[in-house]
């Protein structure tokens, strides 16, 4: 923590040294990624010895640009988004030194995929109501329950898992957070087919899964606080990306509009332009948010970016299906698949329309996000809560 | 559109604080309500403080022409604050529209420079003699005709701040084509219709063989007028942002303290969600308004798109915020006594001012190659 700050010049020197010792043209991809991690160039704001150099986070772009220019392989971050965006910050903050050393390197290189065992059939927006039980047995915990909406569960080696360890206290107080071994024989993963036809997500059944106490993150009963770290990082990851004008879903509709004059109507034209304006306004809002972050004064605007993104994606993809007319009556393929990567703007318009329906549900429903904005940003009073002082086991369900 | 600055600088933040302090003190809602039905709907003393003492009328005017040498960014910020308090001063007509038309003309031409000096110093108040509803890109107006001696005849309806003006900047068509003229208010007949917007008056202005000074001829007049309309439309977005901001803040405060069914009504999700949506619209409106102001200030190639986006978005947001303000105040929101209606009337008039949202979207369709 007390090391002198690393600057851009020093990072460039370190990148040059890495490239000199491991020529990307002749080095095995995984070997290169491991060497990059060991050189502290994986995520420069992480501590030394754990893939970083305690450097300012914004300098990561310097490293990424230099390595991309040299043709170096990357860790395919979209494939391991849950590990990078959610598991890693939580392990870093709450894990023992041993766990950090064990988990972070293969997580970053992508050798080990992570998934997130949070939502349950009975605990969606009200995550703190979750009921997957963990019972202590010596140096181990025995876990039983069911999780849902788990992407990557079928490819994951590890999971971050929130459980109920004390049903006799109010719901927020009785939870504990673990790292779960997805290869344990008590873990059963079943694909969960969604409205697009494919199964991007899974249901995960946990039957007498044994987890060593050493794989606990945070204290017993502190699981809710630990989960907040994970979820805060998730929302940062969803809203924060720079977008060019007409990027994303708008680009798809605009291209169709330009290529297919025979489909145009006056009514669709004004709707398209209205959405063009709104999309551009929110693109500028994202730019403004990043400018605020860069000068060290983040505003509350980030809470709303996902909400806007969901609404616009849905409206734009819906407009495109309608614009296509006769072609909008057809769908590319209902075959059940388990994709490893999800591209919201991939495939055809019908798929995009259906997939976008999830944008206002996953990672916090739009209704929950509006509550958060109203209560935390605008300071409006909360709804009366019936569950605050009631033991979890006594909650109506 | 390389590197727009969408934040407020320290200087801009200081400027905002001093304008807001002044308006909090001098533009209090109950006094404003009393004024709008009086014989003096404009607050001449407040306007004098803003224009002469604080120098805000000359913000975008170069120092050598008697102004502050600032830019459209600072003008936008003042409009935000004036919008927040729906202040009854002729800032839009004089410091924005008339001034931008003059800045768009040849400022080395002495009559242009002289009038700019008078407006920038606050010595005189100007108005641009076009209907307030005129959008950028409109054909050069033909309502006023100039004769061979440069005397003007014709009527222009709904001139913003026309009844507060000492001098009109008038686009007129003459034997040599379009021209931009200055006419003293004393040489025109000015009548005030009953306005929808009580805090920004409109005037019907008639010129009858009126003596005029030529500011720009056929080569310069259309560009000067277009510059004024584009600047006005882009900066009006900041006023709309200020209007929406007041509406949201006032409504949030009200629903937090209004009890029905034994709870603050602001604890009901049906209301909270609507206010969260307005807040989110404000986040984007602020970015769009700042982008337009920055583009106008820097002379960006993207100014046309920036203005069309800002005006079509912010005008919609301001009307939505004002309508929600009236609705979520319940009965009190429908009373004359509560100032919410002043904001609704400003927001609704602003929706028409300098081009409706739909009009700006049509412009955008051409600019971004999305033809109908």
Oligomer: heterodimer
Query: How many separate domains of chain A?
Result: 3
Of all chain pairs, the largest interface belongs to: A-B, 45 and 44 residues
Return the string of H and E elements of chain B.
HHHHHHEEEEEEEEHEEHHHH
CATH superfamily of the largest domain in chain B: Butyryl-CoA Dehydrogenase, subunit A, domain 3
What's the CATH architecture of the largest domain in chain A? Answer: Beta Barrel
Query: Helix count of chain A?
Result: 11
Rg over CA atoms of chain A: 23 Å
Low-confidence stretches of chain B: none
Q: Please identify the top-level CATH class of the largest domain in chain B.
A: Mainly Alpha
Specify the CATH homologous superfamily of the largest domain in chain A: Butyryl-CoA Dehydrogenase, subunit A, domain 2
Number of individual domains of chain B: 3
Shape of chain B: globular
Approximate helicity band of chain B = 40-55%
Computed CA radius of gyration of chain B, to the nearest angstrom: 20 Å
What is the distance, rounded to the nearest whole angstrom, between the alpha carbons of the first and last residues of chain B?
Answer: 25 Å
What is the helix/strand order of chain A? HHHHHEEEEEEEEHHHHHH
Instruction: Tell me, briefly, the overall form of chain A.
Output: globular
Main sheet overview of chain B: 4 strands, mixed
InterPro entries (chain A): Acyl-CoA_Oxase/DH_mid-dom, Acyl-CoA_Oxase/DH_mid-dom_sf, AcylCo_DH-like_C, AcylCo_DH/oxidase_C, AcylCoA_DH/ox_N, AcylCoA_DH/ox_N_sf, AcylCoA_DH/oxidase_NM_dom_sf, Mycobact_Acyl-CoA_DH
Domain Acyl-CoA oxidase/dehydrogenase middle (chain A): 115-209
Domain Acyl-CoA dehydrogenase/oxidase N-terminal (chain A): 12-111
Family (chain A): Belongs to the acyl-CoA dehydrogenase family.
